[in-house]
């Protein structure tokens, strides 16, 4: 009885867990990457990371075997659809790159009281930066309070206590890699109420 508990028997009829590979680009199994919008990137990723699976799915024999099961009209439709998807993905990628190239980052130095300032930075999300992480990093770097706040126009900006506009400008250009032409520094003076 004690020997039975010590050595568990494996039953060959029990189903075993399968190891499934997921694409690093679209997070689908590689067999379904063609249905996403990034088929070309997925194919390159699969070739670099899993060459055996790439050979199984994209070899000339595998493609020919898959196409042979389709009718002539279906083959033409499949070729046309794949060209449309590739063109659409390339256009979306180009549009995203153009949007990122035109996106401006505004660094505003706002006067709070007589000699007290806050620095508000907007437009970081267009360059793919996580605002909360950036705010936390700047808070540590400049030893001040920093937070993400909503603007009146509905967007979000990072507000850092103190006049850190020059240091933030340097950080955005050097660390984040944003071109200097896309970064503007503005000085805002708070209007005194009557």
Question: Keywords, please?
Answer:
single chain; alpha+beta; 5-stranded mixed sheet; 5 strands
How far apart are the first and last residues' alpha carbons, in Å?
Answer: 91 Å
SS field, number of helical segments: 7
For the secondary structure, the number of strands is 5
Strand content: 15-25%
SSE pattern, N- to C-terminal: HHHHHEEHEEHE
Poorly predicted parts: none
- Cα-atom Rg, whole angstroms? 27 Å
Structural class by secondary-structure content: alpha+beta
Query: Mean of residue pLDDT?
Result: 80
* Shape designation: elongated
Main sheet characteristics: 5 strands, mixed
Q: How do the strands line up in the largest sheet?
A: 3-4-2-1-5
The proportion of residues forming helix, as a percent range, comes to 40-55%
Describe the structure.
- A hairpin with a 5-residue loop joins strand 3 and strand 4.
- The model has no long low-confidence stretch (mean pLDDT 80).
- This protein has a five-stranded mixed β-sheet with strand order 3-4-2-1-5, with helices on one face.
- The termini are far apart.
- It has 194 residues and is of the alpha+beta class.
SSE order and pairing:
Blueprint: H1 2-6, H2 39-49, H3 51-58, H4 60-68, H5 72-102, E1 105-111, E2 117-122, H6 131-142, E3 146-150, E4 156-161, H7 165-174, E5 183-188
Parallel strand pairs: 1-5
Antiparallel strand pairs: 1-2, 2-4, 3-4
Helix pairs in contact: 2-3, 3-4
TL;DR?
It contains seven helices and five strands; from the N terminus they run αααααββαββαβ. With 194 residues, the chain is of the alpha+beta class. Helix 2 packs across helix 3 (51-58) and helix 3 (51-58) runs parallel beside helix 4 (60-68).
